[in-house]
Every structure is written in structure tokens, then in C-alpha cells.
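Quick check before the chapter quiz. The format below is the same one you will see on the exam, so make sure you can read both the input and the output lines.
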Amino acid sequence: MPMENEKIVEILAGYADGPRWVRGAIEGLSEEQLDLKLADDSWSIRQLVHHITDCDYLWKEFLLRAAGEPEREFSLEWYWYLPQDDWVKRWSYAEREVATSLELFGANRQHTLELLKQVPALWEKCLLIPTRQGGQERVSVGEVVEMQAGHVLGHVADIRKIREAKGV
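Here is the expected output.
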């Protein structure tokens, strides 16, 4: 069932605001403060920023493939195969500066928004995602955009919790 236009506008506005929310959440932090964590076994603010960017980048492939090959299978099994903590280490999140990730995140979001504006039918295009039970779930581009908008909000809240707990 197609979404209401009002709902789409709301989701796209939230999606567009993602880079601003992340930048606002880390505003004023020093390089050292970006490494603050809630606990020793949790992710730092720096790691969260890289994770947000890379997840956004990974799901961008979904949109591009849906435009070219709707109703085909889309799998990130290679990514889901390992725990997220392993990717944080393999992709050196703790050692990298956040500036490039922030630029990529903003550019990727803008690129996606332009694509959706130029190809509005893309919103309803779907791909099939394999489930752990051996089936497939039909997922639309709109659902992925909404998921990614929420993903950012969740991690921005995590960053704010760290800042509050550490008094910065």
C-alpha cells in the first residue's frame, strides 16, 4: 500500500536532517572527547559516527539496485556474517578522524535525496531480503529510507547519553 504523501515528506525531512543531527551531537568535542564511551566494552562517539556513515553507505546500494533490478534479492549477508564489533575493528573506527565520514554521510544523503526527487517511483520499488529462517522479506526503498532516518536518531541519542554521562 503506497504511503501517504505527507508521511513521505516527513520521512524525507528526517532523513535529510541526519547529517545536521550528527554534526550537532558532536559539536564542540575535541579529538580526545570523540573517544569517550559509556563503558569499556561500548562504542566511542568516534566509532558511532563511522558506523552511521558506513551503514548509510551500505544501504545506498539497496536504492541503486532497486532502481535497476526491482524484485530481485538483496543481501548484506557478508556484513551480517560478522558481529558489528568485528567490523568496528576491521574498519579501524577507533583510529580514524571523523571529518571525512561526516562529509561522505552528508554527500550520500544529498545524493539519495536527489535520486528520490528525480525518480519518485523509486520510493515504492522493492527488493527481497533473505531471512534467517530461509525465506525472503519484501522491503521497499521507502522502508529503507525510513529505517536509516531512525538509525541515525538512535545513535545520536547514544552520543548524547555519552556526552551527558561524561559531562561534555
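If your answer matched, good. Residues 5-166 form a domain with the Four Helix Bundle (Hemerythrin (Met), subunit A) fold (CATH 1.20.120.450).
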